[in-house]
Amino acid sequence: MAKKFRKINPNRLVAQIRAVSTRLISEEGKVHRDEHPLSHTDKLVWVYKEVKEKNKIQITEIVTVSFVTEINDKEYTVVYYDNTHDKILHQHIYNSIFDNSNSIVPLSVRKKGNQKKLLNWAIKDIRNNWQKYRNEYYRRSKLTPDF
Q1: In contact, 24 and 32? CB cutoff 8 Å
Q2: How far apart are CA 131 and CA 75, in angstroms?
Q3: pTM (two decimals)
Q4: Strand partners, 118
Q5: Quick check: helix, strand or coil at residue 139?
Q6: DSSP E strands: which ranges in the chain?
Q7: I need a labelling partner for 4 at 20 to 30 A (CA). Which of 65, 92, 105, 146 fits?
Q8: Could you give the residue ranges of the DSSP H alpha helices within 32-109?
Q9: Is 134 exposed, middle or buried (0-12, 13-18, 19+ CB in 10 A)?
Q10: For the chain, what are the domain ranges?
Q11: 3-state SS class at 2
């Protein structure tokens, strides 16, 4: 369902404008994937599982809420949230483009609320902080940003 928005300021970044989502639904109708561009090289991707109980849709698992950036025509995940391992929402931060290992950050992540609130919180966090995450990733990778 589309929401109505005020006039768009031409000086705003793409991340500040709600893009049209792309929704892919599996054959079972339980896995959803949405993607929103943040800039010409960056995007926000989220995947979640849901079930229909008593005519209500319940989100059962946050598979991933990821910030993905493109460097030299190759996509890299910079940071992502999930709760697939232990059912507690936590953040993974990738070290650099040369070191594909990641660090799990359990602190400073909202842990209270139902799955829908946690999903919305993670999406909002990446929308608000994607530039900071990108700059830190470039710094760890010892790259100079071209933006």
Answers
A1: yes
A2: 16
A3: 0.76
A4: none
A5: helix
A6: 24-25, 31-37, 42-53, 56-71, 74-82, 90-94, 102-105
A7: 65
A8: none
A9: buried
A10: 18-140
A11: coil
